[in-house]
Design brief:
Layout lengths: L1 H88 L1
Length: 90
């Protein structure tokens, strides 16, 4: 009967060891998951910042483009006025 009890005790010890290993693995994975979740939050914040910067740059680019077009229009108007003045002087 002692041999049977020793075998049962060994089985329980094996099961206990496997449970300990699984618990360590779970804790490790939970820790890694927390790190990854923090990394995701950091990346999201970085992305939001870059999106905002890109939007600001696009708006600035549109303002600059508008000013350039306005200057070209003034130049064209000036050139056209100069050409009319030169034509009438001839």
């Amino acid at each position: 009967m002692t041999l049977g009890n020793d075998r049962i005790k060994k089985k329980f010890d094996d099961i206990d060891d496997k449970i300990d290993l699984m618990m360590e693995c779970c804790q490790s994975l939970q820790s890694e998951n927390k790190v990854l979740l923090l990394r995701i939050e950091t990346l999201k914040a970085d992305l939001d910042g870059k999106i905002t910067a890109e939007t600001d740059n696009s708006e600035q680019e549109a303002v600059i483009q508008s000013k350039i077009e306005g200057l070209f229009l003034k130049l064209d108007t000036f050139s056209t006025g100069q050409n009319k003045t030169e034509s009438s002087n001839l």
